[in-house]
Amino acid sequence: MKESYLSTLLQMRLIVGFLGERAQCAWWPTAFYEASSRLFLEPVFSKTSRLAQYHGVLEAARRLHDEHLSVGSYHLFRLPEEIEQDLHVMVQGVGGEELASQVAQSKEAAMDALKRLAATSGTPSVGPTAVGGIKDLDSTDTLKAIAAAYLSAFKQNAKTYPYLVG
Q1: Of the candidates 50, 73, 66, 37, which has an alpha carbon nearest to the alpha carbon of residue 163?
Q2: Euclidean distance between CA atoms 151 and 125, whole angstroms
Q3: How far apart are CA 54 and CA 97, in angstroms?
Q4: If DSSP states are collapsed to H, E and C, what string results for the chain?
Q5: What is the pLDDT of residues 78-104, one digit of tens each?
Q6: Is the pLDDT reported for residue 1 higher than 60?
Q7: How do beta strands 127-133 and 160-165 pair?
């Protein structure tokens, strides 16, 4: 159960992170998932370039979300420390490498992947949107609500910040 929701969280982070970059929806000004970034990162981070991409996008997304949400709330890019550590370990593994390579194919492929993770009937939301409590993070309904909020925002060319209360 725990492994399942963590892999969904990681997949969602990678998808939303990719879609938020400047080449797709431009929520943040990074280009870590463009082909040229690997050429820049590999000489510096020869063994961990994929991890560097992940953390670069993670930090850009975290900053944007933190600017729009109150201190103490959790969101896709800022979770409790134990979960952050678990996700870090996962992204370093074979599964993380595989997920990352699948996500950064194209905007359309990423939108399709996000659609598969989303609830069937997502209500359009712009700005900060409460989706539940942090204790419900491992709930399928909560994960689907988060994915649906992002999917709706990307389709509308708007920004949303789904959050969980502590």
Answers
A1: 73
A2: 10
A3: 10
A4: CHHHHHHHHHHHHHHHHHHHCCCCCCCCCCCCCCHHHHHHHHHHCCCCHHHHHHHHHHHHHHHHHHHHCCCCCEECCECCHHHHHHHHHHHHCHHHHHHHHHHCCCHHHHHHHHHHHCCCCCCCCCEEEEEEEHHHCCCHHHHHHHHHHHHHHHHHCCCEEEEEEC
A5: 999 999 999 999 988 877 777 777 776
A6: no
A7: parallel
Q: How far apart are CA 6 and CA 80, in angstroms?
A: 12
Contact (Cβ atoms closer than 8 angstroms) between residue 91 and residue 51: yes
Alpha carbon of 20 to those of 29, 42, 140, 159: distances in Å?
Answer: 9, 22, 23, 10
CB-based contact 7:98 (threshold 8 Å): no
Residue 56 tokens read as: 């670069």
The answer to whether the Cα torsion of 119, 157, 164, 86 is positive or negative is positive
Give bridge partners of residue 75 from the DSSP assignment.
78, 163
pTM score over 0.85: yes
How far apart (Å, rounded) are the C-alpha atoms in residues 123 and 151?
10
Give the C-alpha separation, 103 to 126, whole Å: 24
Whole-angstrom distance, CA of residue 88 vs CA of residue 27: 23
